[in-house]
């Protein structure tokens, strides 16, 4: 039952993540996502067959439910319509993981405040929501294409460091898979720290 709930939380968390990109783009001058009907929480409008179904199921089976990850079909936007051509894409990118952190904070606050006891059935479900959303946020902040962190980095880099953007863009796919298979453990301490801070369960 908890594993099924984790899958549902993952699906809706990545949907909120993508919709947040669309709303950020709209606020900055581009309504492409709205015109394409993607500013909706209806998961059917966002599900990616591989990232939303296949990958989570494979991870669920291979890790026995101990690790879940996935993604939705990216919400489209036209960066040339943004008011700020330099930092606009970075702000749109940041909106996704920030929305996940906001969800984690809200549900974690209910646990931390004692409104919902963490060892109650509802508390367990809230803890899963916090864990999934913190993991999504931290992972997406990693500055490797195609993750949101790379777009944030590119928006902050001065023009003199354009070579860094070129290198990451050219080698993004390789770096991404290297990180997933060999470097993911590097972000685990950050994930655990944030989960502990949000829920009040840090050691």
Could you characterize what this model shows?
With 203 residues, the chain is mainly alpha-helical. It has one domain. The chain has helices spanning 2-27, 32-35, 49-62, 88-112, 121-140, 148-156, 162-183, 188-199. The longest helix is centred in the first third of the chain and has 26 residues, at 2-27. The protein is globular, with a radius of gyration of 17 Å. The two termini are 28 Å apart.
Number of helices: 8
Q: Indicate the low-confidence ranges by residue numbers.
A: none
The percent range for strand residues is: under 5%
Number of strands: 0
Classify the helix fraction into a percent range.
Answer: 55-70%
Multimerization status:
single chain
Number of domains as seen in the coordinates: 1
Itemize the secondary structure elements and their pairings:
Elements: H1 2-27, H2 32-35, H3 49-62, H4 88-112, H5 121-140, H6 148-156, H7 162-183, H8 188-199
Main traits of this protein?
203 residues, mainly alpha, 8 helices
In brief:
With 203 residues, this protein is mainly α.
């Amino acid at each position: 039952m908890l594993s099924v709930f984790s899958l549902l939380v993952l699906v809706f968390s990545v949907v909120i993540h993508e919709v947040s990109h669309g709303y950020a783009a709209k606020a900055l001058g581009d309504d492409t996502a709205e015109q394409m009907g993607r500013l909706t929480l209806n998961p059917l409008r966002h599900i990616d067959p591989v990232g939303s179904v296949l990958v989570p199921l494979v991870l669920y089976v291979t890790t026995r439910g101990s690790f879940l990850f996935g993604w939705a079909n990216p919400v489209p936007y036209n960066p040339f319509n943004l008011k700020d051509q330099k930092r606009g894409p970075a702000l749109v990118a940041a909106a996704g993981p920030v929305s996940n952190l906001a969800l984690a904070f809200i549900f974690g606050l209910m646990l931390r405040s004692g409104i919902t006891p963490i060892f109650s059935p509802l508390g367990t479900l809230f803890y899963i929501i916090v864990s999934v959303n913190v993991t999504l946020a931290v992972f997406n902040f990693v500055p490797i294409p195609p993750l949101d962190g790379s777009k944030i980095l590119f928006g902050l880099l001065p023009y003199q460091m354009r070579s860094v953007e070129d290198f990451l863009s050219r080698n993004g796919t390789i770096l991404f898979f290297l990180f997933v298979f060999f470097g993911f453990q590097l972000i685990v301490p950050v994930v655990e720290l944030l989960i502990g801070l949000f829920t009040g369960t840090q050691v």
